[in-house]
Each structure stands twice: as C-alpha cells, then as structure tokens.
Amino acid sequence: MSSLLTESDLIHEAEVVWLENLDELDYVRQALDKTRRRNTKPPYARDGRMVGYALLDDQASPDPDSGLYKRRVFFLLPHDRDSLPDGLYREGAPGEAVDPRTIAPKKPGAKTPRSQCGSGAIATSAQ
Hints:
Number of strands: 5
Oligomer: single chain
Largest sheet: 5 strands, antiparallel
C-alpha cells in the first residue's frame, strides 16, 4: 500500500507509537500490514527497520476472511535517505514516503518539502 491512504483506511487508529526520534528523519515509508493483534508491536519482515506503528481502538474488527487486523506500519529501507544521504533519495522520495511530523492517529500523513527534498535542502533555501 502506498502513501495514498485515506482517513477511512485509518478510522480505528487510537495511537501512533514511534520507535525512533522523528527529528532525525526527513520521511518514513508507510504501509498497511495485516497483523494478528490490534494493540501490540507488530512483527516486521521487510528489509530495513520499523520506525513506528499504529495501535487500534477496541472497536476495530479483524477481517472476517483472514482474522487479521489492518494496521499502519512506518519503516525505512537500507537505501533510504537517513542511511545513504548521497544515495538514490538524496533528492526526491519513494512514493509511499511522508513527513513523519504530519502523521497522527487517523491522519494519513503528507508529503512536504522536507520529505521530498530533505532537511538540508530546506536549510539551504531558508538562507
């Protein structure tokens, strides 16, 4: 799933838990993952690392077919800007990337100049 999440995808979010300091991150990738539980740290099976996740409220119901809950997970891959500042995403960002400062429960997050261009570009343009 990409950054094109809507508020209707997130209606049962109660809290967003961050595992890292957001001041250090220009962007995070977000996806909806299916998990067995709605209110614990979800398993993580991608390359890179999980930097946050959503907890769901008591009204959230699992999918009737799979028995799994859809929850938002925030992550970064090894080739993302935080790990390789002069790499592929020195400028620009992956499609599912949003500025973590714009994320809140039930809010999908947004692309900003910082997420798309980097904090270095923002600092340079402010001078």
